[in-house]
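question for whoever is on the cluster today: can someone run the full assembly for these? four chains, 318 residues total. i dont have access anymore since they changed the login thing
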Amino acid sequence: MEDLRDDRDSWSSENCSVARAMDIVGSRSTVLIMREALLGTRRFDDFVRRVGVGEPAMAARLKEMVAADLLERIPYREPGQRTRHEYQLTRKGRELLPVITALRNWGDTWAADDAGPSIVATHHDCGQPVRAVLRCAAGHEITDGDIDIAAGPGIIRRS
Amino acid sequence: MEDLRDDRDSWSSENCSVARAMDIVGSRSTVLIMREALLGTRRFDDFVRRVGVGEPAMAARLKEMVAADLLERIPYREPGQRTRHEYQLTRKGRELLPVITALRNWGDTWAADDAGPSIVATHHDCGQPVRAVLRCAAGHEITDGDIDIAAGPGIIRRS
DNA sequence: GAGCTGACTTGCTCATGCTGAAGTCAGCGC
DNA sequence: GCGCTGACTTCAGCATGAGCAAGTCAGCTC
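^ ran it for u. tokens below:
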């Protein structure tokens, strides 16, 4: 199969999944909210405190994220309390875990302070640290540079 | 080992690798420049055309990325041409491949148009598609939710 | 030495994201 | 039925990012 990189100008990146993903989760606060949500945070004021963003910004971000179907706004009720709403991850949101993990791995390696990473994700079954790695469908792990770029069905060729 | 999520308020996210990574590669255009760089683009005007961002913004972004050590500005000379500069990925930049790949996978699943993805990364050796997956150091693949959060050496406990 | 081209820079304007302070609003506890 | 609390909203105001148009600058070609 041809490697598309050999003729990068023959195709456009109009239909680019990376760009589309960035349009949805491209802002710093959205990513940090996802980090918190993946760590289990659900309530408005916890998000505000833990992400370190102001209330107006948080309200706006959460509204966007519910509209984008990353979070779901669900009513709940603790005994003796009135009904409130919490923000739960949808499947679409939960599937950002590899993205956040890859970002955390990279930050641990290239942007951590001397003390090292503050948190480590570990495999529940064996306790070993978890990382985002590249793997092909045949099960081979990818080491630097073993990748070709092939055309997918949604490619838009330039005239 | 305790799961930190059980007491999320006992530690702060001051020293957060995700936030630090976002401070460096958090903007849409930076990510799209990384996409292009990982696809092999090196020259200023190619970046401008392929990323679809204006020249002033591109010049500013590239300068930032060189300062952040994601790219290196290297002089080169084609025969009959004068000396120019190209932008080559550093190791720090190349190691963002899992992040971009995870983002592309997610975009393919959740934000692609009906035609499907426009490009597919394949393993050079076997031709199978490549994905970013979570794996622990013992080699187990992580399926949804098998993750604990443990304290790392850089954790900052709240007083 | 005039023109061309690639790689920027400058200047201006618009849009977005965030901040801080203050206000609103809905119920449960009393 | 008054106050409290959690969850917001409203209102300036600032900083950043991006767009477009135009200008600059170096050095190779002719």
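summary bc i know u wont read the tokens: Residues 97-110 of chain A form the longest helix (14 residues). The first strand of chain A starts at residue 71 and ends at 76.
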